[in-house]
Amino acid sequence: MPETDPLTEVLPTRWHEGYRPRAGLRRLRESWLAIAQIVLAVSAAYLVSGLLIGHEMPLLAATVTISSLGLLRSARPGAVLQTVLGMLTGIAISELALLVLDPGWWQLAIVLTLTLVVARFLSPAPGFPISAGIQAAIAFMLPLGDFTGMRILDGAVGGVMALIVTALLPRNPMHVVRRDARALFDDVDGTMNRVSQGLRRGDRIRADRGLVKARDLQRPLDVWGTSISTGQAISSMSPFLRSRRLELARMKRMQDAMDLATRNLRVVARRALYAVDDGEPRPALADLVGGIRRAVALVAACVDDAAAEPAARDALGRIAEALDPVELLPEAPLGDQNVILSMRPLVVDLLVAAGEDRQVASARIPRI
User: Fold this and answer.
1) Could you report the per-residue pLDDT of 183-236, keeping only the tens digit for each?
2) Residue 127 · residue 86 · CB < 8 Å
3) Other Cβ atoms within 10 Å of 339 Cβ, number
4) Considering Cα of 340, then 345, then 346, then 347, what sign does the dihedral take?
5) Nearest 5 degrees, angle CA 74-CA 78-CA 79?
6) Alpha-carbon separation of residue 70 from 2, 67, 240, 351 (angstroms)
7) Distance (Å, rounded) from C-alpha 368 to C-alpha 194?
8) What gap in Å lies between CA 111 and CA 133, rounded to an integer?
9) Alpha helices (runs of H) in the chain, residue ranges in sequence order
10) Which residue, 169, 181, 200, is CA-closest to 43?
């Protein structure tokens, strides 16, 4: 399942109501490398600022490093760099303000206002001014350093260490990429199951639920796309993840094809809903959707094993070659034949997700 945003998660009223040991162990298993990254980067930043530069209290070196990396999946080079620049902006504004202002509550209000205004002007990212504001407040309230600019130097050391650790001790992105892919395919399977049941029983309510689920597929699709782009950004910077680039490119090809496939699945679900408006069962159409659903399970297996692609292409190819509405349902009303017509681009997209060239996949669809 996709990660929960800690800023929007609704917490239980009492701590024990939502505590699950297995969930806690899963979070630890997924975050151990992020924890190692943070600890090593903070330790290195402390050593550089404390021992090499001679700053007795390199607090900002530690806070910048921790805030830059974080525990979530977005610790990619671009995101880390953006966070670092935001924090350095806040520290720099505080350092300049301390040249003319003494620390105090109203002086802090002025510095925070100026920092947030400048940071918001500089970057469209909403997190940029927040990062700048937090570090501006910390820097403004800290005792003055040994010389002007010491805290900017501390922040720069922390930022550089965060970037170095991101490259030299990268978080392997494949676990998250595959997990998010499975989440999408699980939702696609559930959607097709609802559509198939609606057609088989002539049940408009079930068919409508299938359409609702089809419309909800965009979120897991976007989550999968974000994890792929994060993995590609990390692998482009880290020499230790170069071997993952081809696999990430394959995941990207699958995700692009599934983006189109989910759009076409919404069309299938919509036409299925129209078809069962009379309440009559349509077992032949349900069997077709069920066959595509079984083929989608073969495509889902390709997420973990590229060697599964030929089997998925064979299964989808047989379905594609049979999708002639006149041959399948010669006496059926136009609405039923339209359901079959809507399956044709869906199967082409699934073939592309399984590694088929789009032109070759399209050629497998019979002419009408």
Assistant:
1) 999 999 999 999 999 999 999 999 999 999 999 999 999 999 988 988 888 777
2) yes
3) 28
4) positive
5) 40
6) 17, 6, 21, 38
7) 29
8) 9
9) 21-47, 59-69, 77-97, 105-122, 127-141, 150-168, 174-201, 204-215, 218-237, 245-275, 283-301, 309-321, 325-328, 334-353, 358-363
10) 169
pLDDT by residue (tens digit) across 291-313? 999 999 999 999 999 999 999 99
CA atoms within 13 A on the CB side of 329: 19
> Could you report the per-residue pLDDT of 68-110, keeping only the tens digit for each?
777 654 556 677 778 888 888 888 898 888 888 888 888 889 9
Could you give the angle at the alpha carbon of 57 between the alpha carbons of 54 and 62, nearest 5°? 105
Residue 283: closest CA among 218, 347, 181, 202? 202
- Mention every residue, 6+ apart, whose C-beta is less than 8 A from residue 80: 68, 69, 159, 162, 163, 166
3-class secondary structure, 3: coil
pTM of the model: 0.71
Catalogue all structural domains in the chain, each as residue range(s) with its CATH number: 32-168 (no CATH), 174-363 (1.20.58.220)
Give the model confidence (pLDDT) of 223-264 as tens digits. 999 889 888 887 777 766 777 888 999 999 999 999 999 999
CA distance 47 to 54: 9
